[in-house]
Design a protein that fits this description.
The structure holds 2 protein chains of 2 kinds. By secondary structure, chain A is mainly alpha-helical. In chain A, 70% of the residues lie in helices and 2% in strands. By secondary structure, chain B is an alpha/beta fold. Classes of the chains: A mainly alpha, B alpha/beta. Chains A and B meet through helix 10, helix 18, helix 19, helix 24 and helix 29 of A and helix 1, strand 6, helix 6 and helix 7 of B.
Chain lengths: 972, 429
């Protein structure tokens, strides 16, 4: 990356990373908390709203029992707890359970699984190992002490249990490094063995190699244990090797033991032949400087943060179902704790409680956080301020839009800051590369010198041995000569005293000859001694030179190393800054996501509200339109009803007109005829004989015409009237039709409106539905976050052991076995009346019976472990459900038969119940530790009514059904 | 092409490396619907295209010289001849006359070099596509196949091993993929454990008690819906489906004619069972034939064992082809290694991983082909050298799985196959 801006700019960007808190915070209103449990609640509530819903009393009891002793409460225990009305009943229950024998048993199982992950017992039998773990827990030995012991155990005969952690990982340095990293430090760095981790930027190959250094000298060594051979762990002087990334070859590096971003542990230079304790008989020699001992000591100090944080997180996860860092073995900057404050608090508490498991767990389960209920997901409750309060972090102030914008801005800035930090780190590494090479070379020179010295020391040893042998030979010969000398002298003296004696003379001569021969033989031997002395001196000189060379190479390496350490310190600083940048970014993204979801829910809420209002208005309008349609329709009908009458009237009028016209026509006809008669008469008059008669006739006709005139006028008038009448009616009819047409049009218009409004209404309904779904999604995501942040309880599956023991416990099979063993113990060693009054005695006796009962039942549990547990050496915390589990629960082994009635167990109580409610209560309380709902009571009633004569069998089936149910499989 | 899944469960999401993608993605799996609960239409749709793998594990180390890469007439060749096959120009050992007639379906890889002569380590490498290391454990091909090929709507187990004996049960072969993808062993071809009702429970009480359990579970899931409760409910549905389909595992239901065609021996029966399972859409079936570890009397043993394999294998290949199953089924014949060209003092051949053969057939694999070659004496690969990691990639590619991708397991990205290796594209049509 090209750096073109001023360093001031970069400094200001980087300062972002180091700023403690950028969240608009509001802390004052919190109550002053007392005790760790309350502190813990505060830390949780700060990042969540603090769901006020607590789990029900009986479900809390089940949760607590399973967490502390791995068994659900029996029906009797539940009844007793629910009947207890004292306010301190929960605290008493906690203390009582912590004191039970099963607490140690259950946590031994949990820690065994955490440490060994169901590996095969290759070198140490399971019984020996669990007995050792049990002893640590029963005696409340600090966790960090005995976990450190596991790393330095050597598996010597008679004391092999603690070495199982290393031995059953075949003593292989890589297998051990992988698991120590995961289990002790919460970092799954196996992918960083041959290169930096491909997907987690902050897991480096140097981290892996640095941890490997603590174990690289380990190997298995066979020793005798009685008449058999066993493997124990030998620790050699470690041979560190240079390494390089398989992806980017060429830059060789070599590191000394160190933990992740911590500095390398300085270790003394050693001289071959002077670096081991003297070997004990039958055991491999131990190095003076044991690297794994160094690691163990750091752990034992109680101040090793990566260890403490991981351990606190892992125990937290065992109690709460998930870690503050989750997955528990992915502690890294891009996967920060859901709340740093919470993790710090919990870690501090673990240290403050001096790593005492019982005390620590006691505080955890007493918190309100442990007693939380599930998350609230209900769109109907979303409008309530209470819901918003339950999701909104307590530290929030300001409006949501601004907060979201704030985090978005920060997101951009932090990602810039990360680039800068990355660049600076890369530059530091780049600058360090020549020193790395120099150090690799200087250490290689030390190795060479060391190898040469080792050879020289060996040669010196050999030469010394040879010289010693020569000395010995010479001494023996010289001794012989001096003895011959004495003999020769004394025999010569004897001869002188005795005088002539042939035989004695011969003897004296013989002695002299032997003495001469002996003296002659001394010379070559002396020569050999001289040669060997020279040779030895040469090897001594050689070794001295070698030693000097080694020391010189070491001091040269020290010098290089001190320069390297200075560079590396800078690199480590830059790396810490980079890690911090990653962590701040990741944390910011979490905040952003949380607030975005809340803002989303808030927006969805508002739009839901608005849409509802709109819908209401549309509905109102539509109702009005509907009324208008009804009114118009009835109006139309009314007006239509008038139409036939009007038509009839118009028709009648027409008829009347016709008849009047006919009358008029008749009158007109008679007038016409009279007029014609008159004309004819007038024409004919001159021809007529009698004018008188003609005149008379004319007069008669005139009279008749006159007479008819009024009739005609009347008729004419009537016709005219009838026309008026008819026209009036016809107009009326037309008008009516017009009115009808108008109403019809109006009606159609209104109906159209109604249709449109109906559509609008269904549109609005759909929108509301969509908005509700969107809100539900946001709520679910928030619920997930709330669970991740312990604001709400997680649904947690039972462990394989918990499933097995629970199956046995709810039917009293477990209790019956414990009681049986108690009776046997009592029979074998009856208690005195005083002992019966002694709580310690009774506790010890109970413990013994529990141990025996569990040992006897363990075979069943192992079957559950095989079915419900993950494979050997795999992480055991992931949930899975397979058909073979369901098949086993349904058809396998004793599961169904365990549900058979026996004295006082749930099935017996269901059989004996008088009312359906009694039966259902016994069933649900006894198996899933809650009271049945009304519908469930009637379901039980119906079930039992199917075959009343088979009540025992049906009761057994019911108990099985609940045991096989999801509700039994999980803890709420 | 990646197979499509009837429900978009988290199990099948291919990893995308992204800032925070892991943590958030992991959490989101906590909540989910009951979408995966029903078998039916989706299952039928799936069945059309269920890709499958059939693996023959020739336990002990099959001799390539007495089977796929004969060298008659040379010092190392042994007594058997090479015979022509249904593909002109390709010859295999005369111990495989029936298989020779199916050569047009097969692809011989004669240049396998795995450099590992230990049974355990060789077997591990061939089944996982990785070299064994103390610091890591890898899933076997069957587990990877089950994980990538098995639809949630398919009620059959995803990973089946037909083994010569034993009671059956769950294998320890899925490493970090988890027990869901571990093998279900069918001991001597018997149905999975606990698929029959126990004494004292008749079908009517079974129906009654399961109905009550289911009612309780559905009520619980409606209050506490999550990926975990879904998985739990699914496991009971799958168990029920297995009980209903118990006959799928019962090879006696096959016709007498077919039983005769496959032969009445154990291996013939196992092959017929394998056909039956593939016809019912089990995505991975492993059949074992043993024991080929012939340090002594190599030729006598191969003369006895190879013909036991030849008949049923050839019948199965021919059946798969005529039933149309070979289109969607990859067949692999492998071993932990081959056997030395050198014939030892006891007329045996020893462990040999430098130059041996693997056979593939079906799905996208080239037909009637030979890839790779050894020299005249069979002591060295001279062309088309491949190793366990490349083969592993190729098996996955052959059934449409993009082997160079990663999947998300418990919040972490895991490559499906060795990222340092690539598929052998040349054998994929």
């Amino acid at each position: 990356m090209e750096c073109t801006r001023s360093s001031l700019y970069w400094a200001s960007i980087l300062s972002l990373i180091l700023t403690a808190s950028l969240v608009p915070a509001q802390e004052a209103s919190q109550p002053i908390a007392v005790g760790f449990s309350a502190q813990l609640d505060l830390a949780v509530n700060k990042v969540t709203g603090g769901n006020p819903n607590l789990v029900s009393d009986s479900q809390l009891l089940r949760r607590l029992y399973l967490c502390l002793i791995g068994l659900p409460p029996t029906l009797a225990e539940t009844n007793q707890y629910l009947a207890d009305t004292a306010s301190d009943r929960y605290g008493r229950a906690v203390d009582q359970l912590l004191g039970r024998a099963e607490f140690v048993e259950h946590w031994t199982e949990k820690l065994d699984v955490m440490l060994m992950e169901r590996r095969a017992n290759t070198h140490v039998p399971q019984d020996q190992w669990t007995e050792w773990l049990r002893t640590q827990l029963a005696n409340d030995r600090p966790l960090h002490q005995w976990m450190a012991d596991l790393l330095v155990a050597d598996g010597a005969p008679g004391n092999r249990a603690a070495a199982r952690f290393l031995l059953d990982r075949t003593g292989d340095p890589h297998a051990i490094t992988k698991d120590v990293s995961r289990i002790y430090f919460g970092r799954d760095i196996q992918c960083a063995q041959c290169h930096n981790h491909p997907s987690i930027d902050t897991y480096l190959q140097t981290d892996y190699q640095g941890l490997l250094g603590y174990f690289s000298g380990l190997q298995l060594a066979e020793v005798a244990d009685g008449d058999k051979k066993v493997q124990m762990l030998a620790e050699k002087s470690p041979a560190d090797a240079p390494f390089e990334s398989v992806f980017h070859k060429g830059n060789k590096h070599r590191v000394l033991p160190h933990l992740f971003t911590a500095a390398e542990v300085a270790e003394p230079w050693t001289i071959p032949g002077e670096d081991y304790h003297p070997a004990e008989a039958g055991r491999p020699a131990k190095p003076l400087h044991s690297r794994r001992e160094q690691l163990a000591n750091q752990i034992r100090s109680g101040a090793l943060e990566p260890f403490n944080r991981n351990l606190a997180n892992r125990i937290w996860a065992l109690v709460f179902g998930r870690g503050v860092v989750e997955p528990v073995d992915l502690f890294h900057a891009e996967n920060p704790p859901l709340s740093e404050e919470l993790l710090s608090e919990v870690t501090q508490q673990l240290v403050a409680q001096q790593f005492d498991l019982r005390k620590f767990v006691r505080e955890l389960v007493k918190s309100q956080t442990f007693q939380r209920g599930g998350a609230v997901v209900d769109p109907n409750q979303s409008e309530s301020a209470a819901w918003m309060a339950s999701v909104l972090p307590r530290s929030t102030s300001g409006n949501l839009t601004e907060i979201v914008e704030h985090y978005q801005r920060l997101s951009t800035e932090l990602s810039q800051a990360r680039s800068v930090a990355q660049h600076q780190y890369d530059a530091a590494v780049e600058a360090e590369l020549p020193l790395r090479t120099e150090r690799v070379n200087s250490l290689a020179a030390v190795d060479t010198a060391r190898a040469a010295l080792t050879q020289a020391v060996e040669a010196q040893k050999k030469a010394a041995a040879e010289k010693a042998a020569a000395d010995q030979a010479l001494a023996t010969a010289a001794d012989k000569v001096s003895k011959l000398q004495v003999a020769a002298e004394s025999s010569a003296a004897a001869l002188a005293a005795v005088g002539q004696d042939t035989e004695l003379t011969a003897a004296v001569e013989l002695l002299k000859a032997r003495l001469a021969a002996g003296q002659a033989a001394l010379e070559p031997l002396q020569k050999v001694v001289a040669e060997k002395t020279v040779a030895l001196d040469a090897t001594i000189a050689n070794a001295t030179t070698g030693r000097q060379a080694l020391v010189a190479s070491q001091s040269a390496a020290s010098e290089v190393n001190s320069r390297y350490q200075i560079a590396d310190q800078l690199t480590r600083q830059k790396r810490q800054l980079l890690d911090l940048a990653y962590a701040r970014s990741a944390d910011n993204e979490l905040q952003l996501q949380n607030y975005q979801l809340i803002a989303q829910a808030d927006k969805d809420n508002a739009s839901l509200k608005q849409l509802s209002q709109e819908l209401q208005e549309i509905q109102l309008r539509r109702e009005q339109t509907q009324l208008a349609v009804v009114a118009l329709t009835s109006q139309l009908e009314q007006q239509q009803a008038k139409l036939p009458e009007l038509a009839t009237l118009a028709q009648t009028m027409g008829g009347q007109l016709d008849s009047k016209q006919k009358q008029l026509e008749a009158v007109q006809e008679s007038i016409k005829r009279l007029s014609q008669a008159k004309l004819s008469l007038a024409d004919a008059a001159p021809l007529l004989a009698s004018t008188e008669k003609a005149n008379a006739a004319l007069a008669e006709i005139d009279a008749a015409l006159t007479a008819v005139e009024p009739t005609k006028q009347t008729a004419e008038k009537e016709v005219a009237d009838a026309i008026v009448m008819r026209d009036a009616k016809q107009n009326q009819l037309k008008e009516q039709e017009l009115v009808l047409a108008q109403i019809q049009q109006q009606l159609e218009q209104t109906q159209l409106e109604l249709r449109q409004q109906t559509e609008a209404q269904s549109r609005a309904s759909n929108q509301i539905q969509a908005a509700r779904e969107q809100l539900l999604r946001a709520q679910k995501s928030l619920a997930t976050l709330a669970v991740q942040r312990f604001g709400s309880a997680a649904l947690r599956p039972l462990t394989p052991e918990q499933i097995g023991w629970s199956f046995l416990a709810v039917n009293n099979v477990y209790k019956n076995y414990v009681d049986k063993h108690l009776a046997e113990i009592e029979k074998a060693t009856p208690a005195t009346p005083e002992q019966m009054q002694d709580p310690a005695f009774l506790r010890a006796r109970q413990q013994a019976a529990v141990r025996k009962a569990r040992a006897e039942l363990q075979g069943n549990i192992n079957l559950f472990n095989t079915l419900y547990g993950a494979g050997p050496g795999q992480p055991q915390s992931d949930f899975f459900a397979t058909p073979d589990q369901a098949l086993y629960a349904s058809n396998g082994g004793g599961v169904f038969s365990w549900a058979a009635a026996s004295t006082d167990n749930v099935t017996a109580k269901v059989i004996a119940a008088v009312t359906p409610a009694e039966a259902a209560t016994a069933l649900y309380r006894g198996v899933v530790c809650r009271d049945p709902a009304v519908a469930e009571i009637s379901a039980v009633e119906q079930y039992l009514a199917q075959q009343p004569d088979q009540r025992a069998r049906l009761a057994q089936e019911l108990v099985w059904s609940l045991m096989a149910s999801a509700e039994f499989r999980f803890v709420q | 092409m990646r197979p499509s899944y009837a429900c978009g469960s988290m199990e099948h999401v291919i990893a995308r490396r992204g800032f925070l993608g892991r943590t958030i993605g992991g959490g989101a799996a906590l909540l989910g619907g009951l979408g995966c609960l029903t078998y039916g239409v989706a299952a039928e749709a799936m069945a059309q295209k269920q890709k499958k793998i059939l693996l023959f594990n020739m336990h002990g180390g099959l001799s390539q010289l007495e089977t796929w890469d004969p060298k008659p007439g040379v010092e190392t060749g042994g007594p058997f001849r090479a015979i022509p096959t249904s593909v002109p120009g390709i010859h295999i050992s005369e111990l495989l006359p029936k298989t020779a007639m199916q050569m047009h379906h097969l692809c011989l890889l004669r240049g396998v070099n795995t450099s590992e002569d230990d049974h355990g380590k060789g077997s591990y490498m061939m089944l996982t596509g990785r070299r064994q290391t103390p610091a890591a454990n890898f899933p076997e091909l069957g587990a990877v196949a089950a994980r990538t090929l098995l639809a949630d709507s398919n009620p059959m187990p995803g990973h089946i091993r037909i083994v010569p004996g034993g009671a059956g049960g769950r294998g320890n072969d899925s490493a970090y993929l988890g027990p869901k993808y571990s093998s279900v062993a069918l001991g001597n071809g018997n149905p999975p454990q606990y698929t029959a009702l126990p004494d004292g429970i008749d079908p009517s009480s079974e129906a009654r008690r399961q109905a009550f359990r289911k009612q309780t579970d559905l009520a619980f899931a409606s209050r506490q819906s999550s990926a975990m409760t879904d998985a739990f409910l699914n496991s009971y549905e799958a168990a029920e489906q297995l009980m209903i389909r118990r006959d799928v595992f019962n090879v006696d239901k096959e016709s007498d004619a077919d039983k005769d065609r496959y032969g009445r021996g154990d291996f013939g029966r196992h092959c017929l069972l394998a056909r039956r399972l593939l016809q019912h859409d089990v995505p991975f079936v492993q059949v074992m034939h043993s024991n080929y570890d012939t340090h002594n009397e190599n030729f006598d043993f191969h003369q006895e064992l190879v013909p036991q394999f030849d008949g049923p294998f050839a019948t199965l290949i021919s059946d798969l082809a005529s039933l149309g199953l070979l289109e969607d089924t990859l067949v692999v014949v492998m071993s932990e290694f081959g056997r030395t060209p050198n014939i030892n003092l006891y007329m045996g051949r020893d462990h040999w991983s430098k130059a041996w053969s693997v056979v593939m057939a079906g799905s996208k694999v080239a037909r009637g082909a030979v890839y790779g070659a050894t020299n005249a004496q069979g002591t060295e690969v001279v062309d088309g050298q491949v190793d366990h990691a490349q083969l592993f990639h190729t098996y996955l590619q052959a059934v449409g799985v993009e082997s160079t991708e990663s999947i998300v397991v418990d919040g972490r990205d895991v490559p499906l196959a060795d990222p340092a290796a690539q598929p052998i594209w040349k054998v994929l049509a």
